[in-house]
Amino acid sequence: MSDLELEAMRRKRYLQLQKRIAIKENKTKEPNADDVLNRVFKGRAWEVFNSANHQFPEVMTRIKELLVKLALSGEVKEITGEELYLFLVDLGLKVRLQTKIEFASHGEVKSLHDRLKEELRKT
Questions:
Q1: Structural domain spans, the chain
Q2: For residues 46 and 9, is the Cβ–Cβ distance under 8 A?
């Protein structure tokens, strides 16, 4: 064998070892918390979670850790927005959600404010 062939074999072996190490490191890394919650949250759960996180950042950090732990262990498989909201209320967190009432009439979508304004003009 020539020196070039020997060097090529060493390089190939070195790259194989690097790939194995990279694969092992990826398996041992903890999954991203948002990715885990994304698999579990359904419907409007992210909207409720983000509102609660904005209003109660310290508490929601701990709740997020617990939800991730429960999801990874398989104890929690799915959480809807309504379930999350009721859970937070049971914990004593009165989460304020942005609400909007809209009416659909004759192909138009109008807010409650606009609808009331129109009704008052008619009278």
A1: 1-30, 32-98
A2: no
Give the span between the Cα atoms of 40 and 60, in whole angstroms: 16
User: What does 72-107 look like in DSSP terms, one character per residue?
Assistant: HHTS---EEHHHHHHHHHHTT---------EEEETT
Q: What phi and psi, each to the nearest 5 degrees, are found at residue 41?
A: -70, 135
Q: Which pLDDT tens digit goes with each residue over 5-41?
A: 888 888 888 888 888 887 777 666 667 888 899 999 9
- What's the pTM? 0.62
Phi and psi at 110, nearest 5°, equal -125, 150
Sign of the four-CA dihedral 25, 27, 29, 35: positive
Q: Cα–Cα distances in Å, from 106 out to 5, 56, 59, 103?
A: 78, 41, 45, 10
Backbone angles phi, psi at 93, to 5 degrees: -95, 110
d(CA 118, CA 18): 70
